[in-house]
Amino acid sequence: MPKMHGEAESAAISTAEEGFAAKPALAGEMGELEESPAGYMELLETFQKLKEENRRRSVALGSAAHQLKTPLAIISGYIDLLLTKKPGKLNERQQQILKESQINCSRLRQYVEDFLSYSALETGMHVLNPLMGNLNECLSELHSYWLPSFQKKGVALYLPSQKQLPLFPFDYDKVQHVVSNLLENALKFTPSGGTVWLTAETYMWERRSRRDVVTGNERRKQADASPNAVRVTVADTGIGIAPEYHQEIFDDFVKLPQEGDPVGGTGLGLAIARRLVLAHNGKIWVESETGRGSTFSFLLPLKTM
Ligand SMILES: Nc1ncnc2c1ncn2[C@@H]1O[C@H](COP(=O)(O)OP(=O)(O)OP(=O)(O)O)[C@@H](O)[C@H]1O
Ligand SMILES: [Mg+2]
User: How deeply is 138 buried, as exposed, middle or buried, from its count of CB atoms within 10 A (0-12, 13-18, 19+)?
Assistant: First the structure.
């Protein structure tokens, strides 16, 4: 299994959440702005305009994606019907063409779903539905769902013996969406012969900024405290990601340049995962080096914090 960083190192981990937090240069700029209320108001106005513009674009994207759904379902239905051979006989070549078309229809359906999720998240229309649930069950289901695709590519997918987890409130479907996006990436970026592990364990989450100094006493107190979160990890032995991209990949529409065959995707999977995890009050991050696999982790608090 690729190297997992320990607690001591966790402060250096880049998280999508912290990416927005402490930028010393910005702190200085904010100080200057406070002294110039006119400049501040102007900046605020520009920010509001951009935010509104962004919202309008997300709504437009969502509605375009929504309109694609019905014709896509009809095309897919007709392909299925032709493949049943009820409307008429098909030769080998025709069957092959229809099967390939069907594969591309599901790919398109996936894009449409991604655009819809993204748009709903951006416009605040995604409502979280957290219910007391069993995370191990949620992950087992995903393991069974994804296993055939992994086997097809010759990548091993393991769900190591599951650790006991307390029941806690989370949105079952949204967490499955996050893990699916991570598994899909692990499959896409791990050459055949590789391995992917999906794990979940309880975790003591110290919510503090990187600059906070933890005293010996506090450290002892934290060590004694019971876990307050669950950590879910998808680790692969794939192509890896250079450290300078560890935050950027969680941004919208970001895909890294890649040698060899181009892989499909719009660069939204991690951006959606990040929003869904943040909606749970959690955090998501990656540990990776080029050529040495990637470990994506996210934390879900056991209690709403
Ligand atoms: N497990 C991984 N190993 C190596 N690179 C990865 C991995 N996961 C993500 N990446 C990099 O991060 C980029 C962004 O990932 P993301 O899931 O957001 O988009 P995508 O997979 O390219 O497209 P989409 O998920 O929208 O179909 C990827 O294009 C890839 O460059
Ligand atoms: Mg992806």
Answer: middle
